Amino acid sequence: MNPPGIVNAVLLDPTNLRDAPGLWTIRFDGDRIGSVEKQNGRAAMPCPSGMLDARRGLVVPSLVDAHVHLDLAYSLTQVPPNDSGTLLEAIELWQEAKSHMLAPDVCERALRAVRDEIAGGTGYIRSHVDVGSMADYRLCEGVLAARQQAKDLCFIELVAFPQDGLMRDPGAVDHLRRAMRDGVNLVGGIPHIESTQRDGLRHLEMVFDLAAEFDADIDVHIDETDDPHSVYAEYLASMTMERGWQNRVTASHVCALGSYPDAHASRVIDLIAAAQIAVVTNPGVNLHLQGRFDRYPKRRGLTRVSELLARGVPVAAGQDCIADPFYPLGNGKMLDQAFLLVHADHMNTSGAIRQAFDMVSGMAGRVIGLARHAIVDDAPANLAVFDAEDVIELVRVRPTPHWTVYRGRVVAGTAAN
Ligand SMILES: [Zn+2]
């Protein structure tokens, strides 16, 4: 369905995410937004034939999932149960399972996750893809095929992710290079999976070497542990500055930062800010997987979200996992991650709730490098139409959007007006 536009929309003022006054008409020009005009008066206008009627609901730029694993999605039933619920058991179970997974199955599961995401209003996805040697490139083939099949539904960028390390799994680097040649966008990493800190640092150096080889940005899983002695984030920041990779690096998870003493954490946050690194937290999965060595009280496991934000570091909230051995839940609804974040980091003021929404919306767009992620003239016509009067209600109720629009086409929701 290619509607010419949307009437009776409530829009957000991008400076504060409060409702902009009045009702608005958005017209599409192909895959772009042709115009955004304020309607006369406060009453809703009759909806012209073919247009979508937002009925005074909120119209927002497409939501962003800045961190998910499409190759893992919906693999839960193919893997023995993770009885401990820990990250380490999940990695072991996944190693066994991925050694016999085939690309068509991966593609099918990834597409199911993509459909979930767009049904929840997402239009931009950054997915990590396991290029470890045990996966023998079949996972990457499957996700690349899914991206091709979903190219008219949403934007997907991929990160070549050596899940089992680069020192522990030396075969991964060939697959990683092949992935980059085949159109995967970013170089990934996971230094804390290596056996020693020395190997972890060599791993990080290799990640930067590979990024330079392909002139690619970087998104690494980093310090995804409660261990306060896991200090790769500061090395990531220092290497980013040494290599001149500022504004090109994302640090995903950064959980250990939440367990550092305050003085140490403050120094690391300063380094992250100086290196212009963006951070992605994964509220549902971090709450689920971290704190597993604690009895009571149990740590929440997230990074220091509010302190990073206060220091000016852009932070996004990702889904991370959907029904896989790492996390049995997950549904691709990014509003759920904003909701969880409000609870996990005490983001309870109305301003902080808007900020949590920003972390799956505008700020998340900046984290993944979107240039024009707004409802303005000539921006991509990628948006979602919700039955909610403001952001607070959106995060509170987390409705399914009436429509998700990608490049001017309705890709999810009720096709009828
Ligand atoms: Zn991840």
Would you tell me which CATH topology of the largest domain applies? TIM Barrel
Can you tell me the CATH superfamily of the largest domain? Metal-dependent hydrolases
Helix content: 25-40%
Q: Would you report the number of β strands?
A: 18
Bound molecules: zinc ion
What does this structure look like?
The protein is α/β, with parallel strands linked by helices. The protein folds into two domains: 5-61 and 373-413, Urease, subunit C, domain 1; 63-367, Metal-dependent hydrolases (TIM Barrel), CATH 3.20.20. It is built from 13 helices and 18 strands. α4 (172-181) links the parallel β10 and β11 (186-189). The longest helix has 18 residues, at 197-214. It starts with a strand and ends with a strand. The mean pLDDT is 95. The chain binds zinc ion. Zinc ion binds next to loops.
Q: What would a concise description of this structure say?
A:
With 417 residues, this protein is of the alpha/beta class. It has 13 helices and 18 strands. Helices cover 33% and strands 20% of the residues.
Could you outline the blueprint of secondary structure elements for this entry?
Elements: E1 5-9, E2 12-13, E3 18-19, E4 24-29, E5 32-38, E6 52-53, E7 58-61, E8 63-68, H1 87-98, H2 103-119, E9 122-130, H3 138-149, E10 155-161, H4 172-181, E11 186-189, H5 197-214, E12 218-222, H6 232-242, E13 249-253, H7 262-274, E14 278-281, H8 283-289, H9 305-310, E15 315-317, H10 334-344, H11 350-358, H12 362-367, E16 383-386, H13 391-397, E17 403-406, E18 409-413
Parallel strand pairs: 1-6, 8-9, 9-10, 10-11, 11-12, 12-13, 13-14, 14-15
Antiparallel strand pairs: 1-4, 2-3, 4-5, 7-16, 16-17, 17-18
Bound molecules: zinc ion (ZN).
